[in-house]
């Protein structure tokens, strides 16, 4: 079964600093990878996704992620964060071509301080 | 992106009563809808997967008689929490997908409080 590991439960960072949120997944023949953001008491909003093609994926709000098959990782990065980026971030995986659901990591709380 | 609307956003009910949560895909037809439960400061746990016109497939440990899921049309799925108890208090989120090759879009969630 697929699994997703987000090693950092909390990441505090100062405004305008760069940030990387780590995500590793269990290996499979092919996978679809996603990053979602959740603001308090709200649903999930898709930041970006990797289905195939270029391993560097750019998403909304200045975020990007790189698919690394050899390291089974899909880390999320932003070169300069804002206070408004404070939220919970979830990495998710779905087995490629399957009808399966998304498997979520436990989430990483990003706290941006002034 | 596509819009998934979940209603209500918040509900408080008395212990022993039932409450229904609706999940609607507003601008696409959803062949599959998913229901998740999220405990405070934790990830989303899949409760069940429903395909339009079929019975829902429940995850292990989820009581199908307690969490009734109906996916009667391509734009609407409902989750009914029957005989709710305080331990059912949680944040419930639905997502909808047009087909296996498209991404799932999430509703805004429903905060259920059972008193």
Structural account:
The complex is a heterodimer of chains A (about 110) and B (about 120). With about 110 residues, chain A is an all-beta fold. Chain A has strands at about 5, 10-15, 20, 25, 30-40, 45-50, 55-60, 65-70, 75-80, 85-95, 105, 110-114. Chain A starts with a strand and ends with a strand. Chain A is about 0% helix and about 50% strand. In chain A, strands 2, 5, 6, 10, 11 and 12 form a 6-stranded mixed sheet that branches. A 4-stranded antiparallel sheet of chain A has the order 3-9-8-7, with no helix packed on it. The model of chain A has no long low-confidence stretch (mean pLDDT about 90). Chain A has no helices and 12 strands. Chain B is mainly β and about 120 residues long. Chain B is built from no helices and 11 strands. Chain B starts with a strand and ends with a strand. In chain B, about 35% of the residues are buried. The model of chain B has no long low-confidence stretch (mean pLDDT about 90). The chains are: A mainly beta (about 110), B mainly beta (about 120). At the A-B interface, strand 6 of A face strand 5, strand 9 and strand 10 of B.
State Rg of chain A: 14 Å
Share of helix of chain A, binned: under 10%
Distance between the termini of chain A: 41 Å
- What is the residue-averaged pLDDT of chain B? 92
Summary of the model, kept short:
The complex is a heterodimer of chains A (114) and B (115). With 114 residues, chain A is an all-beta fold. Chain A is built from no helices and twelve strands.
